[in-house]
Amino acid sequence: MKDLLTRSVFIRLAALLLALAPVLSACDTEPAAVKQAREHEEEYKKIDDKLIQDYFTRKGITSSNYQRTESGLYVVTVKEGSGQLIQKGNRVQVQYIGRFLKQEREDVVFDKSYGNRTLCECTEVVVGANSVIRGWEEALLLMKPGDEKRIFVPSYLAYGQYSSSPSIPNDEPLQFEMVISKVNLQ
């Protein structure tokens, strides 16, 4: 009886392993959709960087005027603030104007905080809460109270290939003028 039970458990376990073999063997391979998204992002890293550099050329912005982060975000300091850098968890009030930078829609405003019917004419963001685009999250960590900066956000750090915003096309690099009007510690 014990041998029959052991054999039955062994057979069931072997059948289960055979059934799971295709799934387990696929664990080391990248799903097609993930691979395609990764390749698309790599392609747009080059495309967006060229678009941003072309914009800088048209506007006379030189490499001595900007900082480029490892991710591909560009930051131009307009006015230096004071105090400590913003940290994750800080609640920040940001006044901003968002514009396109591709030549055919260059400098067209697609969003702004000014005139938004708040006393501060700003938007409030908890840094690190992923409530804004990745480019903003990164830029805010490079800023301090009173900073005025222009950031140039590659599409893959903005809305990417599947924009959820009706006013922003897919794969659209963006620029923002940002002013940090207030920082509250959490």
From TrEMBL:
Residues 1-26 form the signal peptide. GO terms for molecular function: peptidyl-prolyl cis-trans isomerase activity. PROSITE patterns: FKBP_PPIASE, PROKAR_LIPOPROTEIN. It comes from the Bacteria. Pfam families: FKBP_C. Its EC number is 5.2.1.8. InterPro entries: PPIase_dom_sf, PPIase_FKBP_dom. Belongs to the FKBP-type PPIase family. PANTHER family: 39 KDA FK506-BINDING NUCLEAR PROTEIN, FKBP-TYPE PEPTIDYL-PROLYL CIS-TRANS ISOMERASE FKPA. This is Peptidyl-prolyl cis-trans isomerase. It comes from Hymenobacter metallicola.
